[in-house]
Amino acid sequence: MKFNKARCRVLHLGRENPLYQYRLGADLLECSSAEKDLGVLVDDKPVMSQQCALVTKKVNGILACTKKVVTSMSREVLLPLYSALVRPHMDYSVQFWAPQFKKDEELLERVHQMATRMMRGLEYLSYDERLRELGLFSLKKRILRWDLINAYKYLKGGCQKDGAKLFSVVPSDRTMGNGHKLKQKKFYLNMRKNFTLSVAEHWNRLSRGVVDSPSLETFKIHLDAFLCSLL
């Protein structure tokens, strides 16, 4: 395979990166502060704020176009359109680029709020009431759901070897709690730290019946019930 040298860039990552220059053959490669890979914009931090802004801009455009061309604002029409046209952009690889900062989280959540407010009969309800009416989770809960599902895979599924690098299980015979408390390992990267802190905190709040689910599908059913009761 021949590489197009004009389209190759170097993205320097890490706090103490020596910023070496690289060549492809005889040609010196240009450096870049952000590059898109498989549709995800990765910068040199990486904090993913640029990706959050990119996704928000894209889905806001889709919602504006939908509002112009669709005559019916009923939930029967808009909810399938939202699921087909908007959510895929917000869900694509979000396990990787999930917002780390509250401002980015709120930016994305406002898209979800606007979409649910567009539906006739729901515009005067609060955001939480609209979500309950539509049977949806907020973006924050959806990301938490994916993280807890991944934690289940790491701890009880086919990824236990990888899970050992992220979590330490503290078995307990106490009746309170789920008996499989997680203790976070120390990480220096914010992306890893944020994932393990969030997952361990909520995993430790799950009941024993949820954690001991015999299969992933059963775990998802029990987890959804838990998230519905979570404020």
Task: Write a structural description.
There is one protein chain. Helix content is 53%, strand content 12%. By secondary structure, the protein is an alpha+beta fold. A hairpin with an 8-residue loop joins strand 7 and strand 8 (180-184). Helix 1 (49-69) packs antiparallel against helix 2, helix 1 runs parallel beside helix 4 and helix 6 (139-156) packs across helix 7 (160-166). The radius of gyration is 21 Å and the shape is flat. The mean pLDDT is 83.
Describe the structure using short key phrases.
231 residues; single chain; 3 domains; alpha+beta; 10 helices
Please outline what is shown here:
Helix content is 53%, strand content 12%. The chain has helices spanning 49-69, 75-91, 94-97, 102-117, 127-134, 139-156, 160-166, 190-203, 208-211, 216-229; strands spanning 9-11, 23-24, 27-28, 30-32, 34-37, 40-43, 167-171, 180-184.
Unreliable runs: none
Number of distinct helices: 10
Largest sheet: 2 strands, parallel
Tell me the number of structural domains. Answer: 3
Global morphology: flat
DSSP summary, beta strand count? 8
Structural class: alpha+beta
SSE blueprint and pairings:
Blueprint: E1 9-11, E2 23-24, E3 27-28, E4 30-32, E5 34-37, E6 40-43, H1 49-69, H2 75-91, H3 94-97, H4 102-117, H5 127-134, H6 139-156, H7 160-166, E7 167-171, E8 180-184, H8 190-203, H9 208-211, H10 216-229
Parallel strand pairs: 1-4
Antiparallel strand pairs: 2-3, 5-6, 7-8
Helix pairs in contact: 1-2, 1-4, 6-7, 6-8, 6-10
